[in-house]
Design brief:
single chain, about 200 residues, mainly alpha
Length: about 200
């Protein structure tokens, strides 16, 4: 899956660069890639939104989750990061039920229980509990689930291009100062992984 490819690319990029820098470059590349879609949807007019506070909250949570996810890639095996990340749909179901009024049916409840059991088997936390990397990955998965629930709310009134623009623009703003504080010019090898 593309998430595994992104995880491998992220882990390779962290061999040379700080997580803040990787996230900033990622957002800037995303803005460049979004430009043709933005232009096809009316240019800057497509970015107009009456729900900027929700965009701001969603992207603050998403940025924090991304930061945790990239950090976890440097702390625990890739298989554990991916397994814990796959709990995101579980948390999304629970958050949608709690905050969006969606009622989980028997299938969803069974999927939640089996998913948690499966992740427990893969991660195998020690008798003393989960380690710091595993906890950070879990917090990132919950953060991504919160972001998905907020995105679902936004899709009722916003176009996908608007949601994507505000995600990339806000996260570029969130990360510019931390990225500049740790900036190292990437090697050609690392640029390849950043583009992936």
């Amino acid at each position: 899956s593309l998430m595994v490819v992104m995880a491998i690319a992220g882990r390779e990029a962290t061999r040379q660069l700080a997580v803040f820098e990787i996230m900033e470059i990622r957002s800037l590349i995303g803005l460049v890639l979004l430009y043709p879609m933005l232009r096809a949807n009316g240019g800057l007019a497509a970015t107009a939104s009456r729900r900027l506070p929700l965009h701001l909250g969603r992207n603050a949570v998403h940025y924090g989750a991304q930061l945790g996810w990239f950090a976890a890639l440097t702390m625990i095996p890739l298989s554990q990061v991916v397994a814990i990340e796959f709990t995101m749909p579980i948390w999304t179901v629970l958050l949608a039920a709690a905050f969006l009024g969606e009622r989980p049916n028997v299938r969803k409840v069974a999927a939640v229980v089996l998913g948690l059991v499966g992740v427990g088997l893969i991660v195998r936390p020690s008798p003393s509990g989960m380690n710091v990397g595993q906890l950070i990955a879990l917090a990132a998965a919950v953060g991504f689930a919160m972001s998905v629930a907020m995105t679902k709310s936004l899709t009722g009134t916003e176009k996908p291009v608007t949601i994507l623009f505000w995600m990339l623009a806000l996260q570029s703003l969130f990360g510019v100062v931390p990225a500049l504080l740790v900036w190292r010019w990437p090697s050609a090898y690392t640029w390849g992984w950043l583009v992936v």
